[in-house]
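Batch 3, record 17
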Amino acid sequence: MQSNTKQNLWGYLFIGPFIIGFLAFTIIPIITSFYLSFTSYDLFSAPQWIGFDNFKEMFTDDPRYLHSLKITIIYVFAGVPLRLLFALVVAMLLNTASRAVGLYRTLYYLPSLIGGSVAVAIMWRNIFGDEGVVNLALMSMGIDPVRWFGDPTAALWMLIFLSIWQFGSSMLIFLAGLKSIPQSYYEAASVDGANYFQKFFKITVPMLSPVILFNAIMQTISAFMTFVPAYIISKGTGGPLDGTLLYSLYLFKQGFEFFSMGYASAMAWIMLIIIAIFTSIIFMSSRFWVHYESEGGK
Amino acid sequence: MKAKYINKFIYHIIVGGFAVLLLYPVAWLIMSSFKQSERIFLTADSLIPNPFVLSNYGQGWQGFGDYGFGTFMTNTAIFVVLVLIGHLISCTLIAFGFARLKFAGRGFWFAIMILTLMLPAEVVMIPQYIIFAKLGWLDSLKPLVIPAYFGHPFFIFLLVQFIRTIPRELDEAAIIDGCNTFGIYRRIILPLLVPALATTAIFTFYWTWDNLLGPVLYLNSPSKYTVSMALNMFLSNETVSNWGAMFAMSVVSLIPVFIIFFIFQRYVVEGISTSGLKG
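Prediction for the assembled complex:
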């Protein structure tokens, strides 16, 4: 039997790297960031304490900030539900006994595999170019081509389409969830004469709800933080007319282009608060729609 | 019986057709890299390059200025390997500590780790940059690599979950045989952890290979640029440089990603569906 001290020693020896890293790369930066958000700081001269001025400026004096916040919320609220819906539909299509399912699963996951890379953003940018494939396809259907890079709304939708296109990881998680639903539930429902939609809403959705919750939260958080596609597709400008100036990109520009480190820190804190609010709303709403088998349902 | 076949046929038409639609952009990118630069957009609607040229690859590989694409590939490979070693060592040690050792404050630190997982990178990005700048670490791999040696919350969590599925009886047997705590980690847990380590390694590879923000923040000299940064440079030179070379190098940058995927497909797919890895 080991003594308590010895056990503690071993424990802290093993998790020691985490504690050191946490202090150095997380806690000290968090405290610094909190302090900086109340200062004006350009990295070269000492930070100047300015109280709540950064926060005041954001909401009253910086239309670009409010615009960036607005389009980020549109990006999240249009992109995430569509992506999840897409992922769920495909997962249901693939939840069959067909032998080709393995191949399809791979093919559908491929766009997400190459997800965050610069190559994908470059490709996407060109597919939506004025003479790109998407416009050619629209024209062949008799629809006027869209100037994806000329119109701020169209450019934002181009980013949303990109995020929907990469639905693969959510799909795989849904697929794992679907596989864990006992087939006997569906058989019993069939015996009782349930139709396809009844089975979907009375069995699939409730049984899958914890997975839906998990996906919704993870995707919402990561959507709020989207940076690379907006940065590449707009060549770092957030254009056209700030149409793709997502929150992270604007924060990056404030910090590392305009060297407003204090302002960017304040932006980061507002972002943290917004993400916390949205995830807690999703969490709290889950009481009404998430069904946990172990609790015997509602 | 006949109806069953028709249903099957319709199913494959729908599911297969949709897959083709989704993969069209990737095919377009690959095929465009074999087209003559000036004809890429004239023939944007056709997939087949006519004429089929390989010269884009040669031109792209030359890179720009004094640095060829080979330099960027080497830089990225070094970056990936250093982070990989860091994650594999630190995450397994930490995960073993959390999953197997009883010590005062374990619950507290575990909760802290889970909270770190939820923290947007933006909140710590600016102070981290300032700290690394003060340390004189700018324009080196240090800010990108050193933190990897202190664990990554996501992989720690993944490994903890995995270690919990390993029976404790094995540890007890090892203790009776005279193993100390480090011996249990080294001789019992590590060998059994291989599938979870594969997931950790593969996703570390993907995230590091794709990382753009980190290198953009910390690397300034072109001799140290990574593949992502080089592609980004191609794009910002787009008016003067040629499209074909950019597409060709985009394809090259994806080759390692595809190779890893096809070799370790099982681990990638299981890793995502059991742990919910993002991507």
